[in-house]
Write a structure and sequence with these properties.
This protein is an alpha/beta fold. It is 50% helix and 12% strand. Helix 24 packs across helix 37 and helix 25 runs antiparallel to helix 28. The structure holds a DNA duplex. One of its GO terms (molecular function) is DNA binding.
Length: 887
DNA sequence: CAATGCTGC
DNA sequence: TCAGAGCAGCATTGG
């Protein structure tokens, strides 16, 4: 194959990328803009130029031979910004992953290394392309050497050969040094001739081809001043020319052939891209011909070896090889996502290089495997403990001894990480390439089940990665002091949640249908009234059609706009309500419509054959540490308005004579705030169990308890909410509909009343700026890469997050701890009561009549003592025949 | 699939 | 000046 050499001016491209892109950083706060730009450029030039040999040359060391001639060389250059310097190792890693050689040599610049190789290539007639943002390199252009010069951004480039150079500057490549000798280069502190810029220099060079000839004939040029300068600065020009001349005889310790570009390994590159969070580039890997492995035999060879043994009734001896090791990796594959409905398609076990594939039928009636599963001493490393437990138990298999959950580990290490699929984790941790489920099964319409053999390959590949991830994560958890959070909170909780999900909540289906009928009647009535008032029938659910009616047909005033048109949000409609009776009906229509579609129809769809709803608690979604609930979401069942609250009537105990017990923390977030900032007035208020909003109103408005009006209390309440969310005057003014000025006064008065709160808020932001993350009571950690951003918006958001996360996250820690403790205690006491749901600050149980009194006290005690704070925690317990009645 | 809107804490 | 309340899930519209 014909050789093609590519020489990349590393420093030049790096600087270019750094200044061309905003100061991006990834989720752990590492700046990555220059590395990102470099990677973009690299992928582009490799794809387009298809070089066979590549070198990236770097400047290393401070002084070069040029300093001997001119000690101020590059004297004025600012020190490399630290945000850029810290990215240099990233670029080396990147190039390493691409298997691209890098080189720098003390005493020489990258230019000289490139020049030496370019001259050699020219001599050997090897086609060569130089990539740089520096025009100096144009002097190397030759018959076989061209320069790609960055034009705009990082990926737009101009190609210069001799003709292009002549067209653009009217110069031959050799004259670039003359140009530079005349005009100098401020960035390198090369003087040139004072007062001569590019334009004059080009004019001079049009008459004589070299600096030497120009300064020998100053009189040949018009203009007295110019003539003087040519005489006065002749020496500077000669020196400048010398400085600009690239040295092409650097003694290099390698030969041309050693620069041959080897096959680029997809997994290595993907792993680095993933760790740096270069998402668009990751996507590009699959499409890029650079990484194609199908039509290239050599890359085929580089695919990691993967072997497995399928267990059959005949070869169970294979099991003897590994079963006594502990831990083993256990991976369970399913047909669909939801573990409450999924079927197991296969089970894989791994230890070192031994991978076993166990079909479900074999697993189920295979004694040694079953006893291994149940043995608490036989440790299992899994991905998603909760899911594994549910899947196995639904197949009637008992399981114990989960020692490590790779998914939960990845989450506690960085709860903001959204790419938590096993294949993502393998990439992020550089433990080799693992196909994603989408790759294995296809996605969207192309999704299809796998035949037995490819299925076995896929699932054993997954299990094979688990132990490597376990070792990585264990070390990282230790380093970040997160082991307790994982082992003592999140993993035990996963087990508790698995049980809660499997038990499920009983639904009174006839009640649900009954409510559905009344809601439907209301909707139809409202729909008729609204279309009558509007004088035309239209889709009330369409904001577009609705705004046409309200703001064009009826001419109501526009209060707020959205990106696409007029806003018809509830806040806007509430302001418009006095103007036209239709508005109120629309609000009511929306409210009941929501109830019907989301809560009546939506819940109906989720009822399982056992008459229960089995929600799924997601433990790795919310960056604060909260849980979330899906399919269906049982954490947003209506309560505020009576009409919606009735939905709660359908959630009932699973047996007659049982009750629903609901226990909720009272003001847990404000109590946490009082604890964290140790404000004496707030602490006292909680110690005395005062109504906190009334107390705040008393303190802020400086009045006695009896003088607090309901308006004052509700304003104080809004301020308290704002404090928890990371307050802004604007946010508060919007929320309670007062002028911003007034909101600011409230906030100022609040902070004046509780100075420790302000101190705490300030401290937590300063802390976040220093450390790059904030923490919660149980040491949960959330990184805030934007905390030092220059964009006001991004930074403000990070600051509010810094204030909110320790509060919301600590509340999550507390209730999680209570759940784990409570579950243990209920087991210990062999209670029949079941924990069913968690709604952030509330736990729901079903309880047989004979356990009611015991549970009331047990739940309260465990919740109130989940952690010890400097203020008491308070829990309200309520009991009823449905969730609705437990209020 | 994005935008909008609404439900919860 | 600009934008602007913390954390979620789900239904609907309309491209």
């Amino acid at each position: 194959m014909l050789k093609k050499l590519m020489l990349i001016d590393g420093n030049s491209i790096l600087y270019r990328a750094f200044f061309a892109l905003p100061l991006l950083s990834n989720s752990t706060g590492v700046h990555t803009n220059a590395a990102y730009g470099f990677a973009m450029m690299l992928v582009k030039v490799l794809e387009e130029e298809k070089p066979t040999h590549v070198l990236v040359a770097f400047d290393i060391g401070k002084t070069t031979f040029r300093h001997k001639d001119y000690e101020s060389y590059k004297g004025k250059r600012d020190k490399t910004p630290s945000e850029l310097a810290e990215q240099i190792p990233l670029v080396y890693e990147l190039l390493e992953a691409f298997s691209i050689q890098t080189y720098g040599q003390a005493g020489f610049e990258a230019d000289d290394i490139i020049g030496t190789l370019a001259v050699e290539a020219e001599r050997e007639q090897v086609s060569t392309v130089i990539v740089s943002g520096d025009k100096d390199l144009f002097q190397l252009i030759g018959d076989h050497v061209t320069v790609l010069h960055t034009r705009k951004g990082v990926t737009e480039m101009d190609r210069y050969d001799e003709a292009a150079l002549r067209e653009r500057y009217g110069l031959a490549p050799s004259q670039i040094v003359d140009l530079k000798g005349l005009m100098g280069d401020p960035s390198d502190n090369i003087p040139g001739i004072a007062g001569v810029g590019e334009k004059t220099a080009l004019k001079l060079l049009a008459k004589f081809p070299t600096v030497e000839e120009i300064i020998a004939h100053p009189d040949a040029f018009s203009g007295k001043k110019l003539q003087e300068k040519l005489r006065e600065f002749a020496d500077d020009a000669i020196l400048s020319k010398k400085l600009a001349t690239i040295h092409t005889e650097v003694p290099l310790p390698f030969s041309f052939d050693e620069l041959e570009l080897r096959d680029i390994q997809k997994d290595k590159v993907a792993s680095v891209f993933s760790r740096l969070e270069f998402r668009t580039l990751i996507d590009r890997i699959d499409k890029s011909p650079l990484f194609s492995s199908s039509d290239n035999e050599e890359t085929e060879v580089l695919v990691e070896e993967h072997e497995y043994v399928q267990i059959t009734p005949e070869n169970q001896g294979e099991w003897e090889k590994i079963f006594h090791y502990s831990p083993l990796a256990l991976q369970i594959e399913t047909d669909i996502d939801n573990p409450h409905h999924a079927g197991i398609t296969g089970i894989a076990l791994s230890h070192k290089d031994d991978n076993l594939f166990v079909p479900l039928e074999v697993a189920k009636d295979w004694g040694p495997f079953q006893s291994w599963l149940q043995d608490n001493q036989q440790k299992k490393v899994v991905y998603d403990l909760k899911r594994c437990k549910i899947l196995l138990e639904r197949e009637g298999m008992k399981v114990a001894g989960f020692s490590f959950d790779v998914l939960l580990a990845a989450y506690v290490l960085n709860p903001s990480e959204t790419k938590l699929e096993l294949s993502d984790l393998a990439l992020q941790q550089s433990i080799g390439y693992l196909p994603s489920d989408d790759e294995a099964y296809g996605k969207g319409a192309k999704k299809r089940p796998l035949a037995l053999e490819p299925l076995a390959v896929h699932v054993t590949k997954k299990s094979a990665k688990l132990l490597a991830l376990y070792h990585r994560y264990e070390e990282q958890l230790e380093k970040n002091d997160l082991t307790k959070l994982l082992y003592e909170l999140e993993m035990p909780l996963a087990s508790v949640l698995a049980d809660m999900e499997m038990i499920g909540v009983k639904v009174d289906k006839s009640k649900l249908e009954e409510l559905g009928i009344t809601f439907k009647e209301k909707i139809e009535r409202l729909e008729k009234e609204i279309t009558d008032l509007a004088g035309t029938s239209f889709n009330i659910n369409s904001p577009k059609q609705l705004s046409e009616i309200l703001f064009e047909k009826l001419g109501l005033p526009v209060i707020k706009k959205t990106k696409t048109g007029y806003s018809t949000g509830a806040d806007v409609l509430e302001k418009l309500a006095p103007q036209h009776e239709i508005v109120e009906k629309i609000l009511h229509y929306r409210q009941v419509g929501k109830l019907y579609s989301t809560y009546i129809e939506g819940l109906k769809k989720e009822i399982s054959p056992d008459g229960k709803i089995h929600t799924r608690f997601n433990q790795t979604i919310a960056a604060t540490g909260r849980l979330s609930s899906t399919e269906p979401n049982l954490q947003n069942i209506p309560i505020r308005l009576e009409e919606g609250r009735q939905i709660r009537q359908v959630f009932v105990p699973s047996q007659d004579d049982w009750s629903i017990l609901a226990a909720d923390y009272s003001q847990v977030e404000l109590r946490i705030l009082a604890h964290l900032c140790r404000d004496p007035i707030l602490q006292k208020a909680f110690l005395e169990d005062r109504d906190i909003h009334t107390q705040t109103a008393m303190d802020v408005f400086a009045v006695e308890a009896e003088e607090v009006s309901s308006l004052m209390r509700s304003k104080a309440k809004a301020v308290n909410f704002g404090i928890v969310y990371g307050i802004s005057a604007f946010g508060l003014s919007q929320n309670i509909n007062i002028p911003q000025k007034e909101a600011k006064e409230f906030i100022d008065r609040y902070f004046a009343t509780y100075p420790n709160v302000r101190q705490f808020m300030d401290d937590v932001v300063v802390d976040a700026r220093k450390q790059g993350y904030v923490t919660t009571l149980l040491n949960r950690r959330r990184y805030l890469p934007d905390i030092n951003a220059s964009q006001f918006n991004a930074r403000s958001f990070a600051e509010r997050t810094a204030m909110n996360t320790p509060i919301q996250g600590s509340a999550a820690d507390i209730i999680k701890n209570a759940m784990v403790n409570l579950s243990r205690e209920m087991d210990k006491r062999k209670l029949k009561s079941k924990m069913l749901l968690q709604v952030h600050d509330e736990l729901i149980f079903e309880v047989p009549a004979e356990e009611l009194e015991e549970m009331k006290s047990l739940v309260r005690v465990q919740m109130e003592n989940a952690v010890q704070l400097s203020v008491p925690l308070k829990v309200d317990v309520n009991i009823g025949k449905s969730w609705y009645e437990a209020k």
